[in-house]
Amino acid sequence: MLASNLKSIVSDNVLHAKWLNTLSYMENAGAKKISASEHKENVNLIILKHAAEEHRHAYYLKKQISKINETLCKTYTNAELLSPNHTKYYLHALDIAVCRYLKAVFNLSGYDLKFAAYLFVTYAIEVRADELYPIYQAVLDEAKSKVNVKSIILEEEGHLEEMMNQLVSFSDDWENHAAEVIKIEKALFESWVAALAAELPISA
């Protein structure tokens, strides 16, 4: 379903610009979430690197829009995003649901809860990115688009490995908890994809 949706999006310049802008918005939102989870003093190198790279992805995706049309999608206003309500809800809802889960299972609060949520939410997002960006790149290649996300694919693979290394230190049973978080993310992602599909001409 995602690949066929992306083919429709990439074939329409306005939709494609909005799609890039939507991805940029989500990367930027993720970077801000990472920064918000930081301890006031105990900030490790991986968190700084990860936040910086997510911000760079947001910038890179926004810049790619100029390869389609320099006049499109200058802001993150609803009119310049695809399925804006679902897009803005997705990461926030994932964060809240994962916090509830971790609070119930590990009895965490305060910074400990924020940090644990950062680990598991980011892991789920990286698993999703590892699936989404290669599908998008394949559609771009097929369409012979000037746009490309190959550099993001490489960095997201590195992020996933970093998150797994941190999760191993967090809990011996991290994989079972991560599986529960993946289920939460999957439901939210599927809802987002359905909302995207509803905006495409083929659904009309």
Structural account:
- With 204 residues, the chain is mainly alpha-helical.
- The protein has one domain (1-199).
- It is built from 7 helices and no strands.
- The protein has helices spanning 2-10, 13-36, 45-64, 84-106, 110-142, 150-170, 174-198.
- Helix 2 (13-36) packs parallel to helix 4.
- The mean pLDDT is 93.
Task: List strands and helices in order, with pairings.
Blueprint: H1 2-10, H2 13-36, H3 45-64, H4 84-106, H5 110-142, H6 150-170, H7 174-198
Helix pairs in contact: 1-5, 2-3, 2-4, 3-6, 4-5, 4-7, 5-6, 5-7
Protein name: Ferritin-like domain-containing protein
Q: How would you summarize what this structure contains?
A:
By secondary structure, this protein is mostly helical.
Please report the distance between the alpha carbons of the first and last residues: 16 Å
Based on secondary structure, the structural category is mainly alpha
DSSP strand count: 0
**Helix run count:** 7
How many independent structural domains? 1
What is the overall pLDDT average?
93
Helix share bin = over 70%
Rg value: 17 Å
- Stretches where pLDDT falls below 50 for ≥5 residues? none
Give a short account of the largest sheet: none
Order of helices and strands: HHHHHHH
Estimate what percentage of residues fall within beta strands.
under 5%
Shape: globular
Protein name: Ferritin-like domain-containing protein
InterPro entries: Ferritin-like_SF
